[in-house]
Design brief:
Order of helices and strands of chain B: HEHEHEHEEHEHEHEHEEHHEHHH
Distance between the termini of chain B: 84 Å
Strand content of chain A: under 5%
Largest sheet of chain A: 2 strands, antiparallel
Shape of chain A: globular
Number of strands of chain B: 11
Helix content of chain A: over 70%
Radius of gyration of chain B: 23 Å
Radius of gyration of chain A: 26 Å
Number of helices of chain B: 13
Largest sheet of chain B: 11 strands, mixed
Distance between the termini of chain A: 39 Å
Strand order of the largest sheet of chain A: 1-2
Number of helices of chain A: 23
Structural class of chain B: alpha/beta
Strand content of chain B: 15-25%
Number of strands of chain A: 2
Oligomer: heterodimer
Shape of chain B: globular
Chain lengths: 568, 343
């Protein structure tokens, strides 16, 4: 042993391998950085510079922006967008808070059921609530009296539709925020004879503060960047997201599209940064001595919670049910007999059944490639050695997609990839660009999931491996990946479902060969074929439901094999 | 053993290669065809053409007239389309002005009504049929809302119709544009805009496509939809309680036309398609939805079409419409594009 250590010649073997390992690591980090640069940063730069150019590509400074603010019908959308986003956020946050409170802080029955039903909107494209509302609140809607003569098209429709599809996103955050609380605080409040109301305002709300703030920004960003709801049911109420579409697709005015994109990027980035700042201040609420809060039965409160949750869950299911039913009705409202006529997509806009197959292909590829890529990058960033600066930069770049609206990303891809000077321009109008844009669009949440899982693994594994002279890729495949199996599966299903439902980025990037189901929903609705649009939207829901069931079965099966160490 | 495997691999590979070549040979040519024809008719059109030329595959790119026009203009320097089959004549005149069309006289073009063919020789575009504006009124919905049956365009500006009318956005829809262009021709420039100011007060919203207003009227979503006759006839045939009104002042129309896009690398196939486009058989096909077609003597009455529609067609000045298209749309957007300004 000592001999070998003293003899430099004997050392070359292990050291050479160590160098190879470091080299592979650095190479991996460089490739990861390059990927994020090409798929996120450079396209955004291309879009930003386009907003300062005229049609022929000359730099014109702020001229386009001046035109924008001089056109009342365009500039008006800024306040429209802000108004619907704020109103929808207030509604969703209040409802989701109450719903989460009922699930976490009461002894209501059927909690598991309510928890599940609240997630239903995630399965559907955001175009779906718009379509359902036409059947519910339109001129011939069976619930139109509820609106007291107000038309559903416009402000009301956008707020209602946005509330439907963002509800689960708010609820997931609220559930986490409300389930962490220290029972000792409630005991203290009780001992001090604080009223229930006072306890709520001095203990419950402050405890959930960061969750609520985070949910506010998430919902606000989702609503302001959404394209599906205002497209279907926005009527003449123009918002920024639909303006980008109108400028680019309707008038092929790419420069103005870029300007509107910047307008949409600003609130999204602001909301994102404020949220990040606030989250940084969060301190651990649960100290080691905390006692988890256990709700005690209280008949009145529990019954109230049950009624409230039943109403909300009922509404969510109703919206989905209406779309499912309407897709079978032969000729609403004059011929209510049922049939499959609207599933004959071949005679409609949007690309027929081929669009549905393409969507499944896109979703599967996004899930497969995206999960592998994002997880590997997260591993390099989290567990990598050396290249510290590179890892910090990648970490920062990985957060950017969350603040970038899909419409903006899609338009940025046109500018960047539909440029003959770009060596990657060959992927334009192919399935590859759809996969790339979708991976980039949903990168951040998947990345954070991976990082959270990786953080749970003790760094000792890497230390032990390296002292045993095991290269990191062996540790990665033998320890890290199996241990993180649950997180990897949930990343894959997250990417799959979002690829099935997304419209915003891909609406600028699909081609006649790569029609997508979600885009077909939009195109059929545009042509006035609302029932077939509902039918295709439901096909997306069924597909996602199948994916979730497979995910459940598969993870139960794999968990038995890879997660046995979690139980003792 | 080893040799066997390699033999097997070679034979499979050569088989696959041969198969690939065979497939390539079968689908020798693909034509990218831009169109604004109703989606439900595209398969029928392609099948009729493929009956004569099974070796030419048509790849459709369909959207509303305004979108297809804007797309073609945007792709001017790098055209993606080989042929345009079924786009507004106004748009093709505009594209011809931009030098984007390849003049070609299809075999049999002489048989067509000269009104439907570009006057230059050889023609840059050939017409197929005329599509004509009409107003779709949902009878029970109009009765329920206490609306009298409109008889003229002017009727639609009456206060009783406030919020009860939907029309297509002329920037995206060819039907919307032919309405606006016909009002400007019938009522004069000043009168036309004054008319639209009044109409705007009654419009619930402007739609992206020209068929949607009639489909919405057919579904009872709105009592009155300004659309085109063919769409109304189709919805009526599907069982919608519609009355298709031909306004008494006359109705705007545009022709659907076809042309070869300059710069296509599939010129032979494009010419074959154009030869088919002007054929009697193709015109009989157009007649299933359009009362007026380019081939004289072919047209038979279309079921559910309103009476007097053909006589009500105005004497359309296509050059006016094509030349002023951009200015008209800019003015329209300035005045009406945001409903928020109006109410």
């Amino acid at each position: 042993m000592t001999d070998a250590a003293l003899n430099p010649a004997a050392n070359t073997g292990p050291r050479a391998r160590f160098n190879l390992e470091a080299w592979v690591m650095r190479g991996g980090i460089a490739i990861a950085g390059l990927f994020l640069l090409v798929s996120v940063i450079l396209p955004l730069y291309a879009m930003l510079s386009k907003s300062f150019e005229d049609k022929d590509g000359n730099f014109v400074g702020l001229t386009n922006y001046a035109t924008y603010f001089d056109t009342p019908s365009l500039a008006y959308s800024i306040s429209n967008s802000l108004t619907v986003s704020i109103v929808a956020t207030v509604i969703v946050i209040s409802l989701a808070f109450a719903y989460a409170y009922a699930i976490t802080r009461t002894c209501m029955r059927f909690k598991g059921f309510f928890r599940l039903v609240a997630l239903v909107p995630i399965l559907a494209p955001s175009l779906l609530p718009g379509i359902s509302f036409i059947y519910m609140f339109g001129k011939k809607g069976f619930m139109r009296e509820l609106l007291m003569g107000e038309p559903i098209y416009g402000f009301i429709g956008i707020v209602l539709g946005s509330s439907f599809w963002t509800f689960p996103h708010a609820l997931l955050i609220m559930n986490t925020a409300l389930s962490l609380s220290d029972a000792r605080l409630y005991e203290a409040a009780e001992a001090l004879r604080a009223s229930k109301l006072r306890t709520f305002f001095t203990v419950t709300l402050p405890g959930a503060k960061y969750g609520v703030i985070s949910a506010v920004f998430v919902v606000f960003t989702l609503v302001i960047t959404d394209f599906g709801v205002p497209k279907v049911i926005g009527g003449q109420y123009s918002v920024l997201a639909t303006d980008i579409y109108k400028q680019v697709i309707g008038q092929q005015n790419f420069q103005m599209g870029a300007v509107v994109s910047v307008m949409l990027l600003i609130p999204a980035v602001l909301a994102f940064s404020v949220d990040r700042l606030v989250q940084r201040r969060q301190v651990a609420l649960l100290s080691a001595r905390a006692v988890p809060y256990q709700p005690k039965p209280s008949r009145g409160r529990d019954l109230g919670a049950l009624i409230f949750c039943t109403v909300i869950a009922g509404m969510l299911l109703l919206v989905l049910g209406v779309a499912a039913y309407a897709s079978f009705v032969k000729f609403w409202p004059y011929n209510l007999s049922l049939g499959f006529t609207h599933y004959n997509f071949e005679i409609m806009d949007g690309g027929g059944w081929g669009a549905w197959y393409n969507s499944i292909k896109l979703a599967a590829l996004t899930a497969l490639i995206g999960t592998g890529l994002i997880f590997t990058v997260a591993y390099l960033v989290e567990k990598g050695q050396g290249a510290r600066f590179g890892r910090v930069v990648i970490q920062a770049m990985a957060m950017v997609p969350l603040a970038v609206p899909g419409m903006v990303l899609g338009l940025a891809y046109i500018f960047f990839f539909n440029n003959p000077a770009n060596p990657l321009s060959g992927i334009y109008a192919t399935m590859a660009i759809l996969v790339l844009s979708t991976v980039a669009h949903f990168y951040t949440v998947a990345h954070l999931t991976a990082v959270t899982a990786l953080k749970q693994i003790d760094g000792e594994f890497e230390s032990v491996s390296s002292s045993l002279k095991v290269p990191f890729w062996t540790t990665f495949s033998r320890v890290t990946v199996p241990v993180c199996q649950p997180a990897i599966f949930s990343m894959a299903v997250y990417l799959f479902m979002n690829a099935m439902t997304t419209v915003s980025a891909v609406v600028f990037l699909y081609s006649p060969d790569t029609n997508l189901a979600s885009v077909a929903v939009m195109n059929m609705d545009d042509a006035g074929d609302i029932a077939p649009a509902a039918a295709m939207a439901m096909m997306i829901v069924y597909t996602n439901l199948t994916a979730v069931v497979i995910y459940g079965l598969l993870s139960r099966f794999v968990e038995k094999r890879t997660q046995a160490w979690r139980t003792r | 053993m080893k040799i066997d495997i390699s033999k097997y691999v070679t034979s499979v590979a050569s088989f696959a290669l041969a198969g690939g070549l065979a497939v390539n040979a079968a689908s020798a040519e693909t034509l990218t065809v831009y169109t604004a024809v109703e989606a439900e008719d595209l398969a029928k059109y392609a099948a009729a053409f493929n009956a004569h030329h099974p070796d030419i595959e048509i790849k459709w790119v369909r959207d509303s007239t305004g979108i297809v026009t804007a797309k073609l203009l945007a792709e001017k320097d790098n055209p993606q389309a080989d042929v345009v089959w079924g786009l507004a004549g106004t748009s093709l005149i505009l594209l011809k002005g931009e030098g984007m069309l390849e003049p070609y006289a299809p075999n049999g073009v002489k048989e067509l009504d000269p009104k439907f063919v570009d006057s230059e020789v050889p023609p840059s575009w050939v017409g197929m049929d005329a599509w004509v504006a009409s107003v779709c009124v949902n009878i029970p919905e109009a009765e329920a809302a206490g609306l009298p049956m409109p008889a003229s365009w002017k009727d639609l500006t009456k206060p009783v119709y406030k919020g009860q009318v939907i029309m297509p956005n002329p920037a995206s829809s060819g039907t919307g544009f032919l309405d606006v262009s016909s009002w400007l021709q019938m009522f004069g420039e000043e009168g036309g805009w004054a008319y639209m100011d009044g109409l705007h007060e009654n419009i619930a919203r402007y739609t992206h496509s020209g068929s949607k207003p009639c489909k919405l009227a057919a579904a009872g979503e709105i009592p009155i939809g300004i659309s085109f006759a063919f769409r109304g006839a189709k919805s009526k045939a599907a069982g919608a309680p519609l009355e298709i009104v031909v306004p008494s002042e006359g109705v705007g129309w545009d022709m659907e036309a076809a042309a070869i896009v300059k710069g296509t690398d599939a010129m032979d196939a494009a010419k074959k398609l154009m030869d088919f486009v002007v054929s009697k058989e193709a015109n009989e096909m157009y007649n299933s939805g359009y009362a007026v077609v380019a081939y004289p003597g072919v047209a038979k009455p279309v079921e559910h079409f309103p009476e007097g529609l053909v006589d009500a067609m105005i004497d359309n000045d296509f050059d006016f419409a094509a030349k002023n298209r951009k200015a008209i749309l800019a003015e329209w957007q300035k005045r009406y594009d945001s409903k928020s300004e109006a109410k």
